[in-house]
Write a structure and sequence with these properties.
- The protein starts with 13 loop residues before the first helix and ends in a 7-residue tail after the last helix.
- The C terminus is likely disordered.
- A hairpin with a 5-residue loop joins strand 3 and strand 4.
- Among the domains are: 97 residues, no CATH class; 50 residues, Wheat Germ Agglutinin (Isolectin 2), domain 1, CATH 3.30.60; 30 residues, no CATH class; 71 residues, Herpes Virus-1 (2-Layer Sandwich).
- Helix content is 28%, strand content 13%.
- The chain has a 4-stranded antiparallel β-sheet.
- By secondary structure, it is of the alpha+beta class.
- It contains 12 helices and 17 strands.
- The longest helix is centred in the N-terminal third of the chain and has 14 residues.
- One of its GO terms (molecular function) is ubiquitin protein ligase activity.
- InterPro entries: Znf_PHD-finger, Znf_RING, Znf_RING-CH, Znf_RING/FYVE/PHD, Znf_SWIM, Znf_ZZ, Znf_ZZ_sf, Zswim2.
Length: 432
């Protein structure tokens, strides 16, 4: 482009300022991104779609005459491309190539897209398994990629890209996007990473909306193994050793099933991980170390602050708690000798089932399946919320056998049933 097609505008007029204020207070949706400067948008409560192109001369398929800024163009410029309203580029009707590049850089800097995790659809026999990536936490500055509104308030139901980037999106916005994609392309992809959203996107969105309406401190589908309270309300306690054994707060405080360690969770939110459950009147590992430090010497005035710490609930990192309940390599050596009929083999001859390096002098634990694993490798695995043996995929803890985020999950419903739900969903109301 050799020159500007329309004159540079020094200041926005009153009409443009009014449209800017209206756009910033209104909700619109981007339903398709044709290219870096070309978008299809629609207004809330309207089925009419408009094609907006930003560049040499901004254009929109609405009836606004050429050379004027409409609300759809300003939605693209201000919210999708993230041009600050104070920037002179936000009220121009014509841009040079270098100005277009500058605008695109603004969007790139402000758009936080988590890199896509490695995903593969694997087959075992005739059954297909899908990999789900870990959901990204919502940060304060995150905005929905479709309506460009903030998501951190928690008022709107959120979904996320389960097969690609893990980023969050408003449920109602994703539904608008999905309906447009189904009507034009026959399939739905993530608006950020373009990964396939799955064969039944509207069904998934309905479930996400229903989950949002449920109280986060009510654990649906979980009942207390002692008093039979169902569902468990408030904090849920889960036995680390037994599969599917949960207690409510009252029964845990009564020291039911106290011969096994427990983990606990306050809510059903996916981003909340399990944590160590400390029985009443029992010091944690942190508190016990403080007590040992104070024993055998006279107390000073500074020690009273330390004593006050003992009254506060304290817990160690989950990975420390989990590792403490696995036998060390010296115990493993004895177990190995017994398992092999008394023929003792040096522990150094066996490798870590995660990194495949020899055990050597590194601190090592034995998994229930009999494999060995370095403590450092266990820490990395537990921090990823993966509680399965990397060699044989058996659970390291029976109570956490189904809780690892990021490992393979089988589809539980037959495809024909899901397709039936999908057809019904296309005629239902948008979830809240």
């Amino acid at each position: 482009m050799s020159g500007r097609s329309l004159p540079w505008v020094n200041k926005p007029d009153e009409e443009t300022r009014a449209i800017v204020d209206d756009v910033l207070e209104s909700t619109m949706y981007m339903v398709n991104e044709i290219g870096p400067t070309c978008f299809v948008v629609k207004e809330e409560d309207s089925e009419v779609k408009y094609k907006v192109t930003v560049g040499d001369v901004h254009e929109c398929t609405c009836k606004t005459r050429r050379g004027k800024l409409c609300r759809h163009i300003l939605f693209v410029v201000l919210k999708i491309l993230r041009v600050p309203k104070e920037s002179p580029l936000s009220w121009q009707v014509s841009l040079l190539d270098r100005e277009v590049d500058e605008v695109l850089r603004m969007r790139h800097v402000r758009q936080r897209v988590q890199p896509a995790a490695v995903q593969k659809k694997e087959k075992k026999g005739d059954k297909k398994e899908e990999v789900e990536v870990e959901r990204k936490q919502v940060e304060e500055e995150d905005v929905c990629p479709i309506c460009q509104e903030e998501m951190g308030g928690g008022e709107e139901a959120l979904t996320y890209c389960r097969r690609g980037c893990g980023n969050n999106i408003h449920v109602k916005c994703m539904r608008v996007w999905a309906e447009h994609k189904l009507s034009t392309e026959g399939k739905v992809t993530c608006p950020l990473c373009r990964e396939d959203w799955g064969s039944n996107p509207l069904t998934e969105l309905k479930k996400d909306a229903e989950q949002h309406r449920r109280p986060v401190d009510v654990h649906y589908g979980c009942s207390c193994a002692r008093c039979r309270l169902s569902p468990i309300r408030g904090k849920r306690f889960k036995c680390l050793i037994c599969a599917d054994y949960s207690l409510c707060q009252s029964c845990f405080d009564a020291k039911v099933h106290s011969h096994h360690p427990f983990v606990c969770k306050d809510t059903t939110l996916a981003e909340e991980d399990w944590k160590e459950a400390v029985p009443p009147n029992q010091p944690t590992g942190v508190a016990e170390s403080l007590l040992n430090e104070l024993q055998g010497r006279e107390l000073t005035s500074e020690d009273y602050d330390t004593l006050l710490q003992l009254d506060q609930p304290q817990s160690r990192p989950l990975y420390d708690f989990l590792i403490s309940h696995l036998p060390t390599s010296s115990n493993a050596d004895a177990m190995l000798a017994a398992r092999e009929g008394g023929v003792r083999q040096p522990i150094e001859l066996h490798s870590c089932c995660s990194c495949s390096h020899r055990i050597g002098d590194q601190p090592t634990r034995t998994l229930p399946c009999g494999h060995f694993m370095h403590e450092a490798c266990l820490v990395s695995r537990f921090m990823e919320r993966n509680y399965m043996c990397p060699r044989d995929s058996k659970p390291i803890f029976g109570g956490l056998s189904g809780g690892a985020a990021g490992h393979r999950k089988k589809k539980k419903k037959k495809k024909e049933n899901d397709d039936g739900e999908e057809r019904n969903e296309q005629n239902s109301d948008t979830p809240g």
